[in-house]
Amino acid sequence: MLNTLRNRFEQGYRTTKYPKEKIELWKRYRGRPQIQDASPAGMARACAEACPQDAIDSEKRVIDMGRCVFCGECEDRSQGTFVAFTQDFEIAVSEKEHLITDGAIPDLAAHARQHFKKLFGRSLQLRQVSAAGCNACEADLNVLATPFFDLARFGINFVASPRHADGIVVTGPISRNMKTALLETYAAVPDPKVVIAVGSCTLTGGPFRGSPEITEGLDSLLPVDLFIPGCPPHPLTNLHALLTFFK
Ligand code: SF4
Ligand code: SF4
What we know:
By secondary structure, the protein is of the alpha/beta class. 30% of the residues lie in helices and 15% in strands. The protein has a domain of 138 residues: Rossmann fold (3-Layer(aba) Sandwich). The protein has nine helices and ten strands.
């Protein structure tokens, strides 16, 4: 017991002060992509051809963050002259078309639905549905319960039963086998309810795009309120999205 108390004393208070204070991420982190205006058209085309996700439109000079898996190939190939990834992790959006960007992303707070803030601002209970995810998106949601992020201090929790939930958080490419389970879980959540799509797989099919075994976009099945891009999205991206949209 004394050892436990001594350890707690030595470790001190570890919970992040974000969002009250800014937080710096490790420099290798790839956040919001920024297209460089001055880069030649040939470089844009070379990046588009190299992109494994077909996420770059070289004519319009935009990246679809819903498809992007943030592999960094385009930045490496252009040596940052066509696209450079910023440290900005606040990249969730409320409309799917906002995922297609040249670097500018609409302010999520301005698109938050006020009735959700009224309903869920003090208490938001979520059921996570892993619809064939690889477990990375799930792990980076799970980590929000640890002392560093301490999601519960904001009144947001993950619950076991959809009947106790205010909404669902979906990860994975929604395989054929998981589709019924997902729709039944959604149906079991009482109205009014929210739907949050997390990760490239759920937004567009991610690395599994083109497979007949998956669903290319949760929004083709359910009304999605919040789109959180990444592969997987950083826990801070998830935290920022939840706090901005519901608090
Ligand atoms: S970082 Fe995104 S846009 Fe760039 S090559 Fe990878 S998947 Fe394509
Ligand atoms: S988006 Fe990426 S990390 Fe998330 S489940 Fe799909 S493959 Fe895994």
